[in-house]
Amino acid sequence: MPYLGAPFRHDVFVTYSHGDLDSTGHSSLKAWSQQFVEDLERQMRQILHFRDFALFRDESQRPGQGVDRTSPLTEGLQEDVARSALLMALMSPHYLSSDWCARERAWWLEANGEGTPGPQGRIFVCRTFPNVTDLDGWRPDRDHQDWPDSFKDRDGHALTGFWFHSREQVDFATVPFRWEGTIGDREDYNKEMRELVRHMTRRLREMKRRQEEQAQEAADLAKLASRSQVIYLHARESQREAWADAKGQLGERGHIVFPSAPETLVTDPPLQPREIRARRNERIHQLANCDALLMLGTEPGLDLDTDLLAVAHRDRHSARDLSGKLLPCALLNQCGCEVPTAAQLAIEALDGMAPSWPDAFLSWLQASVWPERAA
User: Fold this and answer.
1) Does pLDDT of 326 surpass 80?
2) What is the pTM of this model?
3) Which phi and psi (to 5°) does residue 335 adopt?
4) pLDDT tens digits, one per residue of 366-375
5) By CB count within 10 A, which of 1, 317, 326, 368 is most buried?
6) What is the rounded distance in angstroms from the CA atom of residue 65 to the CA atom of residue 182?
């Protein structure tokens, strides 16, 4: 199991050319690259939180971190590439001319999304050999001219990457640091390796944090969807038919709806002030025990504006003070026109004429409970 865990199989996939021009299975570039990867893996694994760091290279001897010799090469390798969180390229002229490396790069981009440079900064380039085309023309800012577009931004600027060769007096004889056991450039090698480890751990930790946030979000949404939500559906007695229909649709989706009937606000004789206060207190206590308030609007005008001000604004805030919890509010708009008062009070209007409004209501409720996730 890699540091990041599912859905990834590997934290890093290393794509590089063996530079085996004679097809002997051996080359100095292959030996250097394998030693480089071993050094990186060892330094990553010595960090406490990265003991499970999983790096894939084609000839790794670790179980599950090299080519599976019991499965078809192309299909198996393609899946390993696709399920790697980061792509690390050991850049050299050999890499640029390798059809196989181009194929690995394309597989990773296909699985992880096209983007330049590197989807979400998940491509790491380690410069091993300079791309020298003539003795007088090499410059650090031109080294990337032949790089693939996925390693550049829209203006053609390449990823800075990590320099594992000298940038002074560069020519065709320039080789990577610690080439074939050299020791005079060991500190240059170690310094750049530390930079690579620092950036890689930071990127993996960022991805791990996002994974944890997404997992928590999925769990919270599943909990919200599975738990019966208690909805206060406010309407007047004159809206009884529309109220009953809305209550039925909410009930079919597992919601519990209060109150048991639309409110009778106009009586004969008129209610006394004490009775009005008692009804309002009862409404506030019911609201305090609900998960959301849904105002039913069937006709624009004074009655709807009054209810929005009295119930959605004043009483809802009193209920929130009483319960100490969030009480999101929306308008189920069946008026056939906009309701300015709702907009002025920052109450979201749902299209109550649309057959799918109950699904839109659930989406709204989820976004209202966790507004930072919907942003």
Assistant:
1) yes
2) 0.63
3) -80, -25
4) 888 755 444 4
5) 368
6) 29
